[in-house]
């Protein structure tokens, strides 16, 4: 999560990138990894599925950052 924050703030701190509207969407899924493929696109498990679903869902929201966990007490961090 720290790295995701560094990437987003780094992009916003470079004036040329900020002026062009360059940004990043971050979807973090914390969960079980059930299969490790040769590439990330071949791997499977809760973490991979949740992060992909989060990235897809961010297209319709102003928020650029979300995380999902398997724990009952969930959190949703929104950084715009």
Describe what you observe in this structure.
- With 80 residues, this protein is an alpha+beta fold.
- The chain has three helices and four strands.
- It has a two-stranded parallel ribbon.
- β2 (33-35) and β3 form a beta hairpin.
- It is elongated, with a radius of gyration of 14 Å.
Describe what is shown at a glance.
With 80 residues, the protein is α+β, with helices and mostly antiparallel strands. It has helices at 2-13, 15-19, 46-58; strands spanning 26-29, 33-35, 44-45, 65-68.
Mean of the pLDDT scores?
A: 82
Largest sheet report: 2 strands, parallel
User: Which descriptor suits the 3D outline?
Assistant: elongated
- The order of strands across the largest sheet is 1-4
Structural class: alpha+beta
The count of DSSP E runs of length 2 or more, i.e. the number of strands, is 4
Q: How are helices and strands ordered from N to C?
A: HHEEEHE
| CA(first)-CA(last) distance | 15 Å
* Percent range of helical residues: 25-40%
Give the number of helices: 3
The Rg value, from CA coordinates, equals 14 Å
Binned strand content = 15-25%
Contiguous runs where pLDDT drops below 50 for at least 5 residues: none
Key features of this structure:
16% strand; 80 residues; 4 strands; 3 helices; two-stranded antiparallel sheet; elongated; alpha+beta; 38% helix
Topology diagram in text:
Blueprint: H1 2-13, H2 15-19, E1 26-29, E2 33-35, E3 44-45, H3 46-58, E4 65-68
Parallel strand pairs: 1-4
Antiparallel strand pairs: 2-3
């Amino acid at each position: 999560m720290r790295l995701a924050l560094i990437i987003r703030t780094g992009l916003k701190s470079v004036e040329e990138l900020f002026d062009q509207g360059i940004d990043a969407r971050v979807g973090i899924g914390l969960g079980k990894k059930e299969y490790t493929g040769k590439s990330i696109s071949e791997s499977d498990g809760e973490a991979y599925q949740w992060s992909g679903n989060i990235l897809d869902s961010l297209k319709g929201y102003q928020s650029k950052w979300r995380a999902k966990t398997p724990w009952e007490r969930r959190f949703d961090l929104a950084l715009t």
